[in-house]
Amino acid sequence: MKAMIIDDEPPARRELRRLLTGFPWVEIVGEAGNVDQAAGMVETLSPELLFLDIQMPGGSGFDLLGRLEDVPQVIFTTAYDEHAVRAFKVDALDYLLKPIEPARLAEALGRVKSAEAARTPRPDAVLEQIFVRDGSRCWFVPLREVRLLTSEGNYIRLSWGKSQPLLGRALAALEQRLDPTRFFRANRRQIINLDFIEAVELGVNGRLHAQLRDGPEVEISRRQARLFKTKLSI
Amino acid sequence: MNDPEPAITQQKSQLAYWIFQLTGWGVITLGRFFGGITVLHLDWPRLLLELLLVNSVGLVFSHWLRDFVRRNRWRALPIRKLSWRILVVSFVCGAPLGIVTQFTYLSVLVDPELLLRDYAPALQFQLALPAAIALEIANWTAVFIVWLVLYFTAIAVREHRSAQFKQSELARALQLAELRLLKSQLNPHFLFNALNTVRSLIADNPARAQDAVTRLAKTLRYTLTSPQDELVTLSQELEIVADYLELESMRFEDRLRIEQDVPDYAAGVQIPVMLLQTLVENAIKHGIAELPSGGLLRISAVVRNVTLIVEVENPRPPAPTRTSAREGVGLHNARDRLRLLFGERASLELDLSKPAVATARLRIPLQQ
Q: Most CB atoms within 10 A, among A7, B11, B39, B253?
């Protein structure tokens, strides 16, 4: 598994590298000392796993994730950052406290491995998960759990569980990276997750309305109606 | 006394009590004595003997009264409840003394004939004794009332004073606690990063790792064990700053460059412990650590107009990032400590007038 270490302190990088020699299946393809450097390297080297420091000069680890189109698996490393650690309590993301305990590292890597195994092989272009930062909270959102994406100007509002985080991207750009067997463009502003459709009804205006589980009713535009019917084979 | 007062205060108040007791009763005795021999021309040895006897009983009674009101915690009573209690006990003590007094030489002080001159002679004879006794009793009751009022006034005054004293004591304790808190803001971010560096050095360079552990121990000991309001010389503080900077250099490697310009004449000036250290930590945290290529940290000192001026200069990132905007805490605390120790005579400012440079400037008056 290709991994990258991103930390501004050289001794910290060396130490992690040394700790990782105990895990030969983790191959370190690169190291970066700040966000700018890291962003370019992640694009070219496309690692599957990042060891990411939170506090770095010129932008935090969160800033890096926000800039990445494709977010690989991430293990955060931090010496002391209560706020960051708290922000991640919502999510199953892993973080390691420096100095890193070898046992905790093994645990975290074990989780990465099983997450990797559970992943169904997909064409490269399809996004599996998305990093969302909204105010002081951060999430890794698995896209299959998102029932609805609504365009709000240059942002996308995700309907995910009980939360509605805002994503700083345009809907059109993201659409191309979504799994076409799961997501469907319902109208000009909305993309729905077909797995969440509970019922489809014909409205008085002659248009189809899809009722989403735990969510709103979404109108299918006239243009998309035929495609929608074939997708659902109705 | 139920309050846990220091022994010395208790001794002092005991002495004051006896002085007042003896003076009070002495004045009453002397007054009556001179009244007796000058106005009424009484036989002075007998008068003196009887006065001494009766007034001694009065003194003993008043002393018992003090015991009694203390045991029953009358000082805690509201004025209204206290007033009628004072009346009752004063009468209880005054009655026997009044009766006794009537049967001594002193009774002559009151002439029943004069009092009852409007009544018929037969009635006069009948009422003479009870009226005289009633007067004596009233007289003694009044004495005890005055005694008790004085006693409770003294207690009230003393309690007011001790409350004031306690308040100033409390304020002082609070200040100390505040100082302790401000100083104990051990920087955990530094601590854990330093430990991580040490862990890395153990494999890379064991000798350097040993050095790092020693320096870390010195830094921690300095932070944790120096008294809160202690002053140290600038050179002592610089020693610990050097240890700290050496540890940070191991962490940041070539991103941190250090320059120091402290003339010998400034090195002996007294400054609050850990204050310069805080400024240097700040310079690292908001300056060097925020810049991908690091920069130069400069410490300089001069003495001008009987004032020590210490400057810590660091490059600052173009736009304050989220973290540096949030954390003015260190500087704020340093300012508070300075105020608590020197009042308005010292100051600390953050100068951002130069482009891309932040200068923390500390001014401390020289100690006489």
A: A7
